[in-house]
């Protein structure tokens, strides 16, 4: 929040409450829920995008009116039944709206048709609750599922009431528009039962405002549908052909956009889904034609659900973590890039090092000795001093520096198998029968198991079924099994049987030289160390609920941060401007993630300076991948970032040094905007961190912008029975 430094905090708090008051007014919230309902099953968050969808439905006023009345009815029935939310994201609202649009599309203006449209509300609530619970158990989204059931029922009732049918809409050809573009816009408009060029233009504008990736997927899906229709000899302009194109677009958007991160594989899945949805739509259109029923959303729903059920990790490890929580693709891509940089890659399992202190890599992935073929993803560790693994002549196992050292659990999990009775080999000897020697096998979920092998005879200190955390002692480094010298073998395998194929993994929270890495795969002969966590730094960077921090700038502006706990039990930092970011603390790291809310340059400068801060007590370097929208870019680059979300990204490189004069850590960062991997713009940040006061200052230096802020006030907000307080922070001399 940017306010004069001399502003009264109590008055500022009152202003904030007053500004937030409209969101608490029942009428405002009701209108908000209604408008956002239009785009809820495509997860649109921009008010302008949702209003464009409202405008699309109003291209045929009678149809749009019934859709809006059905949405109002859905919200009123939901409130009357005392339900705050029936389906995830409030999908019952859009299902009610679609059912109302359907009634208006098929039946002529009539008070009885209006009454029928209002009936969509209670049934949308009831059917959404019923279907949503069942689909949730199968890990499937509701989408427009209840619309199919409710819409088909309302059509049957309308026929029983002998309601007059609406005349078919008159299609006005647009002479100057190419036929593929004309049919593309009609297919987009058909998603909201407004199969016109104007309606499609509104839907296209809503897509473009929300996500350029969704626009590209829609274009690709429509092209696939057109080619399929051409091959089958079905006119693209027919109702069957246009409906098939609409189904293809929606299936591609769901399976390749909203429920995964953009990429080549997602595009392939989207294309496959579009092809299947086209064929399914044609099949259902003709199968239901003789029953006088339209297929509605059924083709795209069936294909989307089948693809989600089929492409699951239990059917193939390649699909592990392919499906993500629903979100706009650009946000999913941001999360995926940042997750990979922070050691949370969906393609690799994150482990801690199975030791404390500094060890050497004896053999890495694709190692020349035994890490080949199905067992290529494995790491071997031993200890070396002055280039030697042993003292003296190395004739005895006790001569080896790593023999007898404590081996620790690299993960959270449960012991499912172990062995401890095999004798250790003499140096240079191996046991080719019992290749893994003494070992501990740990189940970590998703059919993944961690094997720690070649342990010392009789040293295993865990029991079957025991629950482990990282760092828990497992035993001692030994020389059992196929091991010519003492070392630790570590891998992740798919399946419980010893010798099962390995899968990619990485080490998190280690130092390779002076690099602190969260996604490390150390190479052979590299030294790997587990850095010591600074308890003083950990205490000073621990944020409590209700804590307030005020940072002042030389120009009189101020950033006031408050720590809060969200409804989903996520901690966050919130500025008075409404800017918010989530906060995570681990045993060795402070991380900020998921930036949303209002734009605030001071807030973003703080996030860039301290977005990823290790809680270790050594000088180190590390990397991160923040969202590109945090960077204070000039307008041309902001436009480029908006247009090219898949090609534009950001990366950060941090370095932290101890300043003996100020007795503080100086944390500097270089933040680059990249286009196809090449740096096109950069800025620098800084953070001053003390072991008693935490982040006491931050800075950002970018072309045309310079920010210097220091901590000026600390406090806690008041709570029931707890008095709030605030005190100034003295400037360091």
TrEMBL record:
Alphabetized Gene3D superfamilies for the sequence: Ammonium transporter AmtB like domains, Glucose Permease (Domain IIA)
Subcellular compartments: Cell membrane
Domain annotation M23ase beta-sheet core: ranges: 404-494
MF terms in GO: urea transmembrane transporter activity
Protein name (Swiss-Prot/TrEMBL): Secreted peptidase
Bilayer topology: Multi-pass membrane protein
Residues in coiled coil: none
Segments passing through the bilayer: 51-76, 83-107, 113-130, 142-164, 184-207, 214-234, 240-259, 266-285
Family: Belongs to the urea transporter family.
Pfam assignment, any one: UT
Alphabetized UniProt keyword annotations: Cell membrane, Membrane, Transmembrane, Transmembrane helix
Gene Ontology CC annotations of this record: plasma membrane
């Amino acid at each position: 929040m940017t306010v004069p430094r001399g502003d009264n905090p109590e008055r500022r708090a009152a202003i904030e409450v007053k500004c937030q008051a409209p969101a608490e007014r029942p009428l405002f919230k009701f209108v908000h829920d209604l408008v956002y309902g239009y785009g809820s099953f495509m997860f649109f968050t921009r008010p302008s995008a949702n209003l464009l969808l409202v405008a699309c439905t109003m291209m045929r006023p009678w149809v749009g009116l019934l859709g809006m009345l059905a949405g109002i009815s859905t919200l009123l029935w939901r409130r009357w039944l005392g339900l705050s939310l029936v389906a995830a994201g409030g999908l019952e609202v859009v299902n009610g709206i679609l059912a109302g649009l359907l009634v208006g599309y098929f039946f002529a203006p009539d008070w009885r048709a209006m009454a029928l449209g209002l009936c969509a509300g209670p049934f949308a609530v009831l059917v959404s609750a019923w279907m949503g619970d069942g689909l949730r158990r199968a890990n499937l989204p509701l989408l427009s599922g209840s619309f199919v059931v409710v819409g088909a029922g309302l059509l049957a009732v309308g026929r029983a009431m002998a309601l007059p049918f609406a005349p078919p809409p008159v299609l006005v050809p647009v002479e100057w528009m190419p036929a593929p573009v004309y049919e593309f816009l009609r297919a987009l408009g058909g998603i909201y039962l407004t199969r016109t060029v104007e309606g499609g233009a509104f839907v296209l504008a809503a897509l473009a405002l929300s996500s350029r990736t969704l626009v590209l997927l829609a274009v690709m899906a429509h092209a696939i549908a057109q080619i399929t229709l051409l091959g089958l000899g079905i006119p693209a302009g027919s109702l069957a052909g246009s409906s098939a194109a609409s189904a293809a677009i929606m299936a591609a958007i769901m399976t390749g956009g909203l429920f995964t991160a953009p990429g080549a594989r997602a595009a392939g899945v989207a294309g496959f889904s579009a092809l299947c949805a086209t064929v399914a739509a044609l099949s259902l259109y003709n199968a239901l034609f003789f029953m006088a029923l339209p297929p509605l959303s059924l083709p795209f729903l069936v294909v989307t659900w089948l693809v989600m059920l089929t492409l699951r990790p239990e059917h193939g490890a390649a699909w592990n973590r392919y499906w993500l929580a629903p979100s706009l693709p650009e946000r999913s891509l941001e999360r995926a890039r940042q997750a990979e940089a922070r050691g949370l890659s969906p393609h690799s399992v994150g482990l801690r090092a199975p030791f404390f202190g500094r060890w050497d890599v004896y053999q890495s992935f694709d190692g020349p000795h035994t890490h080949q073929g199905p067992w290529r993803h494995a790491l071997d560790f031993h200890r070396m001093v002055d280039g030697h693994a042993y003292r003296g002549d190395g004739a005895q196992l006790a001569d080896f520096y790593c023999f007898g050292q404590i081996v620790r659990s690299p993960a959270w999990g449960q012991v499912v198998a172990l062995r401890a009775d095999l004798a250790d080999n003499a140096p240079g000897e191996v046991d080719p029968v019992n290749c893994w020697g003494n070992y501990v096998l740990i189940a970590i979920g998703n059919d993944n198991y961690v094997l720690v092998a070649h342990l010392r005879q009789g040293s295993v200190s865990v029991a079957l079924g025991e629950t482990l955390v990282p760092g828990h002692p497992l035993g001692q480094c030994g020389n059992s099994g196929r091991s010519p010298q003492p070392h630790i073998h570590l891998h992740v395998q798919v399946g419980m049987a010893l010798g099962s194929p390995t899968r990619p993994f990485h080490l998190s929270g280690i130092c390779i030289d002076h690099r602190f890495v969260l996604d490390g795969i150390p190479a052979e002969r590299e030294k790997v160390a587990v850095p010591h966590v600074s308890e003083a730094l950990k205490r000073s960077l621990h944020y409590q609920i209700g804590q307030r921090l005020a940072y002042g700038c030389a120009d009189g502006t101020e950033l006031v941060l408050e720590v809060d706990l969200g409804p989903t039990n996520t901690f966050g930092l919130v500025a008075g401007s409404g800017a918010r970011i989530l906060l995570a603390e681990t045993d060795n790291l402070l991380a900020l993630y998921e930036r949303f809310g209002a734009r605030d340059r001071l807030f973003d400068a703080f996030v860039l300076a301290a977005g990823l801060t290790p809680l270790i007590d050594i000088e180190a370097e590390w990397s991160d991948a923040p969202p590109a929208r945090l960077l204070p870019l000039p307008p041309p680059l902001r436009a480029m970032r908006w247009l090219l979300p898949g090609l534009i990204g950001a990366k950060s490189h941090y370095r932290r040094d101890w300043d003996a004069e100020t007795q503080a850590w100086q944390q500097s960062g270089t933040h680059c905007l990249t286009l196809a991997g090449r740096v096109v713009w950069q800025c620098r940040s800084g953070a001053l961190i003390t072991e008693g006061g935490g982040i006491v200052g931050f800075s950002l230096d970018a072309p045309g912008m310079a920010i210097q802020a220091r901590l000026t006030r600390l406090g806690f907000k008041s709570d029931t029975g707890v008095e709030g307080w605030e005190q100034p922070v003295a400037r360091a001399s």
